[in-house]
Amino acid sequence: MPETLPATGLLSASWLLIALPLLGAAVLLLGGRRTDRWGHLLATGLVAASFVLGVLSVVQLAGLAEESVTVDLFTFIDSGSLDVRAGLLVDPLSAVFLLLITGVGTLIHVYSIGYMAHDPGRRRFFAYLNLFVAAMLVLVLGNSYVALYVGWEGVGLASYLLIAFWYTRPSAATAAKKAFIMNRVGDVGLAIAIFVMFAQLGTTSYEDVFGSVGLLAGGTVTAIGLLLLLGACGKSGQFPLQAWLPDAMEGPTPVSALIHAATMVTAGVYLIARSAPVYDATETARTVVLVIGAVTILIGAVIGCAHDDIKKVLAYSTVSQIGYMFLAVGLGPVGYAAGIAHLVTHGFFKAGLFLGAGSVMHGMGDQVDMRRFGGLATKMKTTFVTFGLGYLALIGFPFLSGYWTKDAIIEAAFDKGGTSGWLLGGVAVLGAGLTAFYMTRLMFMTFFGTPRWEDGVHPHESPPVMTVPMIVLAVGSVAGGFLLTQTFPLVEWLEPVFGPEAEREHVIAPLLVSVLVTAVVAVGVIAAWLLVGRREVPVTAPARVSPVVTAARRNLYADALNESVFMRPGMWLTRALVWVDNRGVDGAVNGLAAGLGGSSSRLGRAQTGFVRSYALGMLGGAVIVTAALLAVAS
Amino acid sequence: MTDFPWLIVMIALPLVGGAVVAALPAGRDPLARGLTLGVSLAVLVLAAGATIAFDTGGDRFQLTTSTPWIESFGVDFALGVDGIALVMLLLIGVLVPVVVVASWDDTSAGRRSMRGYFAWLLVLEAMMVGVFAATDVFLFYVFFEAMLVPMYFIIGSFGGPRRQYAAVKFFLYSLLGGLVMLASVIGLYVVSNSQLGEGTFAFDALRQLEIDTDVQKLLFLGFFLAFAIKAPLFPFHTWLPDSGAEAPIGGGVLLVGVLDKVGTFGFLRYCLPLFPDAARDFAPWILTLAVIGIIYAALLAMGQSDLKRLVTYTSIAHFGFIALGIFAFSTEGGTGAVLYMVNHGISTGLLFLAIGMLIARGGTREISAYGGVAKRAPVLAGVLLIAGLSSLALPGTNSFVSEFLVLIGSFPTRPAFTVVATVGIVLAALYVLLLVQRTMHGPERGLVAEEPGRFHDLDRRELVVAAPLIALVIGLGVYPQPLLDLIDPAVSATMSDIGSDPAGTTPAITEAGAGD
């Protein structure tokens, strides 16, 4: 960690970054229907203002000798030896997130003006979106693990509110609850990690924790690393806590784009990268991060191949892509910056893809079943082109964003060396092929082939307020990777946080990796053409399929497992306990109650009975204790 | 200002007010509730004044007064507050007027007069102030028992269909605890008599006694049982769901919000300083009960079909956290526990009131009778959600600070118990979100579908009830330090009584953490 200095100038007003969207949320929620007409504009304007302020702040930050400043705000919790101050840390890492969150956030606010134009709950929607941006900024700008935790659960709330936005649908209400609960499971890990830090080091601030990690016993560091990882898995939809993320697609599509693709779900990656000094000191925890990343890459990609719901496919794609980021940060110093770079480009193209999917749904009467799409390329040209560019960026088409940032991760995986390097690299390459397959399948089913629209559906292009953000994100999807790896390398920008780029031996020449990955991607694309593109897509999913497809359609039985291991036994336990509490625990004392007072139906009589027994009891109690005391004393 | 008899006035004013309200002629109900509101607001002002007069850096007990009362037994009418008692007085000051406004129109159902209800509320307020402000153990005992009477009548005369059963059960349980405590109080007197030459009940004198460990254990158990029933701690909890469910909403708020805190307050004020050796010996057992309670009550809350019983079970789970913070013997944990008492009063009070507003519309406590209320009454749904989020200790709400302090403060001394308790935060999320989903989300079901007209959104009076509590939920969630500044010194003093490091938990690695 570099020296951090108190902020000056504009940076000292960094709290405004959070306060602006928070103000928006407050005005919209408290203002009620009075704000219906202009609330969405206020919300969008405030996030945009936060973005502009963020850009100016980062410019100032870049000009400083020490690119890391703190803003001390107020005493949050001070008791005994615990002293948690509310404070912000603006450094190259938080700056990247700051720009991503407010930048993509602004675009999605703009898009939502169109997308939610006819929804009666529009004001509430924008209030929650603003709340989300504020909480997410607390998460990435906080200067201690406690501040991170506050933002962490804050975004969980915003996510809950937005998934349940259409709460009259039981599926939306259930999905929201599921998301919150599975996140909370992860939060237990994060919370206990913070407790361990306090117990061992007496502090929770990044600066002090990282400064004294070296003093901790190896087992303790590993424990902290694994506990933080549990939190990261919950928030980022990583194995074994991935099952909530696809269900979260019940929320309006801009929510899926902003929260469940571009920003919130990548918070786990942020947590691990931010805790680099911890993970640098524990090989074991890093290995577990690697394994989880690799497993999740495959889980997400395999399931993504089988779903027909366009948003579910994109959701599993997100699960899988975040797996790549976990893989990257699990590699340690060689991977942190690569993981963050992929996180940023993924933020562009996946947000763009979701907005495109929303545009398709908008034109198709909220249909999400790709079997009911087809032939939309000519009907929705802007959507098709921007979505297509996002698609190419995601599968790693040469020189588009994914090509630069995903290949960098795959390279680093191979460079780890040894069997594990080959294994991880192999999984990453295989994942790239599967990604190409499911995304090409999605493209064919949605934009090509014969129309399979339901009656009365007249696809049309979305209004400019929606397409302009899509175009901006498409530009990012095309150029972002090149800019962030070649022109303004993120690796260098992040050097103050992660240290100078490590020299490393290449196991396979980078060029060869590129060729290999591109070839595998091509195989995936061709396979999709052979299996989907050149055939007629049936409007109902075929029932007779291989066990693999069945398993993938059922999300590899993750939900079935959760249900049979946790939910059903939990329900039985709860029922049993209710019975026990009413009969057993209460029954014993109830007998006494019945004996003394229950038989008398009138209160008056009961009362006189009590006064007598009260007096008797008083006497009896006093006699017993006095006797006991005398016995002890003598 | 410090010479003003704050505490005596805070007891006398509602007592006199209660008598006046009770003496009002029939048919003067509007005057009765106006008078009650006025008196309760005056007590709030007094509590605020007492807080201003209180010097956080000064003596442990302040605003003290003492008059000999039963001289032959050395009983004094002695009052005084430390930071712990003071924040409880503030809680009482806030909750009673809110309850009065919430009960404004509760004349329906042809029950006894409102005058009676409001009179008992004021008497209860006086007793509650007394129990927290007493610095003489006998006087504490008197208030502890006297407090039962108004609550007994509030439940038994103004409660739900099974109110008599519930009131009797409440009385019996409390009585049992109280009697055993009385024995211990007398025991303390006997010990003080033999050690000091003359018997006393003064807390400060009793604190100096050197009591033999075996005697400590006996006396400790007497106090402990009374407080464990009052708190209530698993497995002494079964009276609370009945009482809480049958009590009228306003009475329920004060029962769960304040009365139960006398139990946890008693642990901290009496059990720890008076019997430190016994407290240390029994701590693992008590912590076990606390942690079982957290998990057990949370599971039970999920299984309830009655709205009010559900809330009482969530409270039992929360009391487990408070007991954990107290018996972990760390300043952070203890401070967190005291803050938890205040915050729980606010957030469960709000939850109880929100549930009450729902029941006022539907007329039944059955959860299954409701569904999809949010569409009809979005503000009510919002209030219930905020109360629920506070109950599950979401950061940004008041309860996060206290639950976090309890857990982070207990972890260094009791890691295993703390880890199990932390799992409770998942269960808390479950019972809260299940409640929200069942009643508020989904399509309109049950009564809401049958008689949608009854489920209008909150009216002005109901907003006045909810607003101050919501403001406190968020205000204390963002800036809790003023309360912590009051609580922390008193908890430190308690921890030094028991021989724990009053400065707080020392990190395992002391040379580290020297960040500044």
From TrEMBL, chain B:
GO terms for cellular component: endomembrane system; membrane. Keywords: Membrane, Oxidoreductase, Transmembrane, Transmembrane helix. InterPro entries: NADH_Q_OxRdtase_chainM/4, NADH_UbQ_OxRdtase, ND/Mrp_TM. It is found in: Endomembrane system; Membrane. Coiled coil: none annotated. It holds the Pfam family Proton_antipo_M. Belongs to the complex I subunit 4 family. This is NADH-quinone oxidoreductase subunit M. NCBIfam families: NDH_I_M, PRK05846.1-4. It is a multi-pass membrane protein. It comes from Goekera deserti. Residues 134-427 form the NADH:quinone oxidoreductase/Mrp antiporter transmembrane domain. One of its GO terms (molecular function) is NADH dehydrogenase activity. Its EC number is 1.6.5.11. The chain crosses the membrane at residues 6-27, 34-54, 83-104, 116-134, 140-158, 170-191, 218-240, 252-270, 282-303, 310-331, 337-359, 379-396, 416-436, 463-479. GO terms for biological process: ATP synthesis coupled electron transport; electron transport coupled proton transport. The keyword Oxidoreductase applies.
